């Protein structure tokens, strides 16, 4: 294991804090009634395609019962549907509806506009630092 210094701990704490502030900023820009958990599930379904409740729960690190409630909310909103599993009649696959895809696109567009507007107000050297930071942060989450 790599030895950590006090400055590594301080930097980690600062990064986590700014991540939280950034997430809250994006939540303020939301234009829909979708919860952050529902949004995460919609994003996962967009990226990975239809999945079972158990698969979604594992991927999001929550209990299947909690994921079931999240999915029920998405179904109630007309954003997702449950379809019979093609090989296991005991299970169902959750997939997005067209309305769900459109809702995600609209929400994503509003958040992207907010961040783009704020980036446009930065000096060129700060924008370059953000670009570099994205590469570095990517290596933290995808080592």
Overview of this protein structure:
By secondary structure, the chain is mainly alpha-helical. The protein has one domain (31-141): Arc Repressor Mutant, subunit A, CATH 1.10.10. It is 69% helix and 7% strand. It has six helices and two strands, in the order ααααββαα. It has helices at 6-28, 36-48, 53-60, 64-76, 98-120, 124-141, and strands at residues 80-84, 92-96. A two-stranded antiparallel ribbon has the order 1-2. A hairpin with a 7-residue loop joins β1 and β2 (92-96). The longest helix has 23 residues, at 6-28.
Characteristic terms for this protein:
single chain; 143 residues; mainly alpha; Arc Repressor Mutant, subunit A; 6 helices; 2 strands; 69% helix; 7% strand; globular
Name the CATH superfamily classification.
Winged helix-like DNA-binding domain superfamily/Winged helix DNA-binding domain
What is the chain-wise order of helices and strands?
HHHHEEHH
Helix content: 55-70%
Q: Going across the major beta sheet, what is the strand order?
A: 1-2
In the CATH hierarchy, what is the architecture at level 2? Orthogonal Bundle
Computed Rg: 19 Å
CATH class: Mainly Alpha
Sheet of most strands? 2 strands, antiparallel
Q: Poorly predicted ranges (pLDDT <50, ≥5 residues)?
A: none
Shape: globular
- By DSSP (H or I, 4+ residues per run), the number of helices equals 6
- How many distinct beta strands? 2
Q: Quickly give the structural class.
A: mainly alpha
Overall mean pLDDT score?
A: 90
Please state roughly what percent of the residues sit in beta strands, choosing from under 5%, 5-15%, 15-25%, 25-35%, 35-45% or over 45%. 5-15%
